[in-house]
Amino acid sequence: MPGTSVPATISVPFSGEGSGIGELTWGQREILRAVRLSGHSIFLGGVTPLPESWTVDDVVLRVRFLMRRHQSLRTRLVRDSRGGAKQVLSASGELVIELYDASEEEDEDPRTLADAVNSRYGQTDFDEEHEWPVRVAVVRRSGVLRYAVFVYNHLMIDGMGLAALLSDLATMDPVTGDAPPVTALQPLELAARQSTAAARRQREAALRHWEAIARAVPCRQSTVADPQDPPYRELCYRSPAGLLATRSIAARRGTDTGPVLLAACAVALGRVTGISPVVLLSVVNNRFRPGLANAVMQLAQRAPCLFEVEGRSFEQVLAQARRASLQAGVSSYLDPDECDRMLERVERERGERVDLSCFYNDRRVPGTSETNRVADPEEISRLLPGTSSSWRGRLGTQDNEFFLHINDSPDALDFLICADSRFLGPAGLERCAREFEAVLIRAATT
After folding, report:
1. Tens digit of pLDDT for each residue in 109-139?
2. What is the pLDDT of residues 267-277, one digit of tens each?
3. All residues at 6 or more sequence positions from 91 whose CB lies less than 8 Å from its CB, including other chains
4. 381, 407 Cβ separation under 8 angstroms
5. Amino acid 393: pLDDT
6. CA of 127: how far to CAs of 42, 78, 197, 238, 414, in Å?
7. Rounded CA gap, 441 and 382, in Å?
8. If you ran DSSP here, which 8-state letter would residue 71 be given?
9. Which of 35-44, 75-84, 377-386 is the least confident region?
10. Chain-centroid distance, C-alpha 387
11. Residue 426: cis peptide before it, omega within 30 degrees of 0
12. 3 state SS of 254
């Protein structure tokens, strides 16, 4: 790795309210399930530029602030002899910050060094029993702080939780470190709430919806498999025309862009693979329940959305997507371990595999970059030359066969598409990305 091979370190003591041991939340179980299936940790975070005026003490102040206020960052796991796990909240501890110095003699780029540190963090599994779920590093050059690297264990925080963390950090007094009290639920509180009778009724309703789809999903056979080694490929795709088309469709139909993109993904996947109905596991943020809007924890869970696409127009699939999006808010809130047991039972009864392995994740932060208006078709067409794509790499085993992640971008439909080549080979994956864009363009311009 570039730069100092053994970085300097600063130990940051911290303390906060609350301690104890309890069951995992449903969201934690969701990610732990994915970790077990894929065999590796799942990470969030990355590299952040720092103001030139900042000192190491400024970083320490903010780290101590976050660790004090958010119990998820002070939570680790304890496992039992049967493979189960519980969450353990500590009232105090120490977090080590690594300090890297970009070499002046070698004219080392601080950003390159920060990216290398971020890559190393992201390729090293978390020790969930002994390590805090956040790693922090600072990169300097000539004694001036240039970048910070924050990498989080997805087991304890999701994308919306990370946004809530950053919003909370903005409330901190930079001198005193004070801020308004935290009002959101914390993980142990949520786990206790999820064991109540009301939560049991909720998860039973969600399970009934999952089971209905599990019994309806076809035993599918993709026609575009092309096995590779390693099996997974990732394709990054950006389409300014696709974003304008999406917003135009949403404005014309009086909806937001979420169902529009969900419908387009279902149509594209169905056309490329020849599978119908298409079932997508859509990620739901689960933050519309009391006490969870600004919670800094892992809450996102999957919900199955079934689409009849064969012989249907885009408008008909969009209507399905709007209904499915509403239903997903209910059916995502359940114990994933109970869901797995139900699926195993349905498989035994059907005598075949129930294939729910196509994953759709809209990672955009709601309300931050959406201005919908009906656009002229020629205006959309003029943006088409701006479309770009690039292969990001090959991956080993993942926990689903197909992924489409929508990224938050103000000027393009920006998404990452990935698939197991035994289900969707590289050519089919590229065709699916292009078809996703084309579905939106056609719907907006015809």
Report:
1. 999 999 999 999 999 999 999 999 999 999 9
2. 999 999 998 89
3. 15, 16, 17, 18, 19, 74
4. no
5. 78
6. 12, 11, 34, 35, 32
7. 12
8. G
9. 75-84
10. 24
11. no
12. coil
Which amino acid does the sequence have at 354? V
Start-to-end Cα distance in the chain: 52
Tell me the C-alpha distance between 275 and 432, whole Å. Answer: 13
Tokens 């660790």 correspond to what residue? 67
Neighbouring CB atoms inside 10 A of 350's CB total: 13
Structure confidence by residue, pLDDT tens digits, 200-212: 999 999 999 999 9
What average pLDDT does this structure show over 138-147?
Answer: 95
CB contact set of 97 (below 8 Å; sequence gap of 6+): 9, 10, 11, 12, 56, 59, 60, 63, 136, 137, 138
How far is it, in rounded angstroms, from Cα 194 to Cα 200? 7
Phi, psi of 267 (to 5 degrees): -65, -45
Please list, in sequence order, all residues whose beta carbon lies within 8 angstroms of the beta carbon of residue 31, skipping any fewer than 6 positions away: 42, 154, 155, 298
pTM score > 0.70 for this model?
A: yes
Contact status, residue 389 vs residue 234, Cβ threshold 8 Å: no
Q: What is the pLDDT of residue 46?
A: 96
Position 421 scores a pLDDT of 93
Specify whether the CB–CB gap between 195 and 110 falls below 8 A: no
- Written as one string, the DSSP assignment of 338-384 is HHHHHHHHHHHHHTS-----EEEEE-PPTTSS-------HHHHHHTG
Question: How far is Cα 419 from Cα 428, in angstroms, rounded to an integer?
Answer: 9
Average pLDDT value for the chain: 94
Amino acid of residue 320: Q
Q: Is a pLDDT exceeding 60 seen at residue 170?
A: yes
pLDDT mean over 228-255: 96
Least Cα distance to 337 among 27, 16, 122 occurs for: 27
